[in-house]
Amino acid sequence: MNDDVRNIVLGVVAAGISAALGWLARTYLWKRKLRRKQAFFGLPDHSESLLVVNRDAGSPDLAVHRYDVFALLELAALIKDCGAHAEVITQDAARQGFGERTEFCVGGPGSNRRMAAHLHAMLPGVRVNTDPEPGPDRLAFQIGSERYRMEKGLSEYVLLARLTAGQPGLTRPVFLFSGQTAITNQAATRYLARNHERLARKYGDNTFVLLLKVVNSQAYGPDVAELVADVTRAAQAPLPTPAAPRNSHRAS
Fold first, then answer.
1. Which residues, 6+ apart, have CB-to-CB distance to 17 below 8 Å?
2. Euclidean distance between CA atoms 127 and 242, whole angstroms
3. For residues 71 and 122, is the Cβ–Cβ distance under 8 A?
4. Are 52 and 105 in contact (CB under 8 A)?
């Protein structure tokens, strides 16, 4: 073998080794990223999860609003990326505990009794005005001493929460997407899909409750969602009776 042939062979071998090492490194990083994502969502390989569907509050039929359907599709994509499976059930059929399977619950307490139960049991500092009569406080959130009123199409609020039961053997989280309108539910799922890595770094496997504001949904749809505040502490602290909010918030 002359020098030219030997150099070619050595070059091919070096290129092969470099390619193999690069592939191994990319595979390692991809798997580490996937494991972190699975840990945050509580969705290891082949695990089961629950998608709880609300009903369209504006429809007399047992229908699901199209924006809530879009929200479920985005969550289904996240679940599939984790290598897990999802069971879809309606809010009136979800008669089981929490913590054994990861749960994604979509819709405000007025259209989702499962959401109402979760808020009552785990977030006693949150109240939602579900009175069907029109008025400035209709669908308003009260979180601690603060009240957040809706201006439909302009300024709408949604709670995005990751809750853990904190009981032995019940290790899977519950994710809540409780909005003042259906489009805010989708905005919250989209916010989670875009920011789950940052949220995982900040909160790990702990509980968090975030208040988001969806800006000008009539023009931008669910795409413009701003973080208003981390309201975890206020949401977990019981409200005084009767509740007396100090401040009200509207878009300016």
1. none
2. 12
3. no
4. yes
> How many other C-beta atoms are found inside a 10 Å radius of the C-beta of residue 202?
11
Q: What percent of the chain has pLDDT over 90?
A: 51
Mean pLDDT of 124-136: 86
H/E stretch holding 235: helix 232-236
pLDDT confidence bin for 15, thresholds 50/70/90: low
Q: Please state the φ and ψ torsions of residue 193, each to the nearest 5 degrees.
A: -60, -35
Counts of helices then strands in the chain (DSSP H, E) = 6, 11
Say yes or no to pLDDT of 92 above 80.
Answer: no
Query: Cα 246 to the chain's mean position, in Å?
Result: 28
Structural tokens at position 222:
């669910």
Question: Per the structure block, which two tokens stand in for 240?
Answer: 């005084």
Instruction: Using pLDDT thresholds of 50, 70 and 90, give the confidence band for residue 23.
Output: low
Q: Indicate if the alpha-carbon torsion angle 133, 135, 136, 142 is positive or negative.
A: negative
Which residue reads 């069907």 in tokens? 132
Q: Give the position of tokens 């496997």.
A: 205
Residue 252 has pLDDT above 50, yes or no: no
Helical spans, DSSP H, in 61-181: 66-81, 113-122
Peptide bond into 134 cis (omega under 30): no
Distance between start and end Cα atoms, the chain: 80
pTM for this one? Answer: 0.82
- CA–CA distance, 18 with 26 (Å, rounded to integer): 12
The backbone region for 144, taken as left when phi is positive above 0, alpha when psi lies in -120 to 50, beta otherwise, is left
